[in-house]
Each structure stands twice: as C-alpha cells, then as structure tokens.
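User: I'll paste a sequence; please echo it back and then give the predicted structure.

Assistant: Echoing your sequence first, then the prediction.
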Amino acid sequence: MMVLTGHTEPVNRLAFSPDGGMLASAGDDGCIWLWDLYAQTSLARISWGAKWVFTVAFSPDGQILAAGTESSLLLLHAEGQDWKPFHQSREHQGWVTAVAFSSQEQLVASGGADGTVKFWDSAQRRKHALRTITGNLGLVRGVAFSPGGPAIAVGGTSGIGMWTATEEEPIVFHHLGDADLRGVAFTADGSALLAPVGRGLLAADLETGQTRSLCRSPGKFTRSVAAAPDGRFLSGRDDGVVQVWDEAGAIACSYQWHDGAVNALAVSPTGTIAASAGDDFDVVVWDL
C-alpha cells in the first residue's frame, strides 16, 4: 500500500490511465494531480484557476483528460509531460460533476448539476454538444459507458437510469428515495449496473430490469463504487472503510484506509491495482 499526498482539500474522483501506469485525482482544491505509479511519485499538479474539480477521466488512448469544474467542462491534451487545455464548454448550467469516455470512440459524456448529460466529440472543438439527455434524476453525480457499446448509465441524487446512444427513452430507470450517490459502475461483463445508494449497494440487472440490494450497513452510508475486470467490485463508505466484493456479491475483505468519507474508487485496467480517496485529502493505492 502507498499513500499519495498533495491535495489540500477533499478528493472527489480518481481515474487510471489506459496503460495503468498513471493515476489522476481531482479535488476541491481546484487541482488535478497526476501520479506515476511505477515511480511512486507525482508527475504534475495541474491548476488553471478552477475553484473545484469534481471529476476527471482519461480518453481511451490516454492523450486527453476531461475535467469537470464549478463552471465548465475542460478537455486537456498531453504535450510531452505537460497537459494543455484545448477545449472548454460552459453549456452546462453550473457544476460539471461527472465525465466519462466511451471505449469505442472519442465520445465523451458530461453530467451536471443542471440534471443533464451531454455528449461531445473530443476530436472536434464543437461549441455545442452533439446530444443532451434530461434524465429527471436530479443533480447528476455519475456517468459510465457500458463495456460493450455506447449505452450510458447515469446516477443522480434521485435515482439511476440507462440510455442507448440513440433512444430518447431510458431502458433502465429507477427513482430512489435516498440515492445521493457519487458514481455508477458496470460489472465486468456488462450485465448489471452498480450504484452506491444510502446504506448499501444497489445492483440493477440490465436484462430483466430487476434491482436488488447487496448490502445494508446500519449507520454507514456507501459513497462510491468501482468494478474490476475479474468480476470483483469495490465500495467506499462514509466512515473511511473500503470493501472488496467477490463475483457472487459477498464481501471478501474490508480495509480502513481513510479517516473520512471515501468519495472515489478506481481499479486499473489490468485489475491488479486499486485506488481510493476522500475527505482526508489522501490518495491510497494498493495491490488488489
């Protein structure tokens, strides 16, 4: 296990590079930190005047970073060891709280406090989004593309939904009373959608549309979730505990990595390394 320090405010989101050698963290200090996991050191601290950075994601080729701030969606391009902004959009009305890239193309989705999800072509500097979804799920806190295609899952303060690339109506939609979730994730085979909801994890079967609660933790709220390629998945709680689940949905082990809420979890593309971060400002990386 290693602890990466640098943020001076809570960390909101983590993202591994496609090759698994670099980790990006976004925080309430208005910065993105890039970490070299092989050298176990920081590569860069990216700051451009944002007050808060809520979310960050790498493009499939690792050459673009998408970031969401209190006022805009920002795309940055790698130029050697430097990352330079090349596109900014203020089309969301307020905070941009979630971003994700499709694995199939240079399509990026952004979700905001205005309750919308917008789609962008990261290779084109278009002024307006290609498409906008109004999900009626409240403030959007998480977006994720399905592993096998362009369908997208959306998690908000009042529920979860899933849309295809072209249809206006959702193929999965659930209003939830206590869904102040911080993210959504697909299982490795793409058969189910995971969402941290209230005191547990909610799993939605995408074939049947049925949902089930995997765990209820009295007095403890689940804040974050991430899926591993081997079928395992992770959840983070508001008491600093990180839980690792097996494919069957049983808790395999728990770790007390943090002193505050675990806002962010990520698993490397190889499935061998995991990372967590939260209100204690620390980024923790360990062998999964």
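The chain has one domain: 85-287. Residues 85-287 form a domain with the Methylamine Dehydrogenase; Chain H fold (CATH 2.130.10.10).
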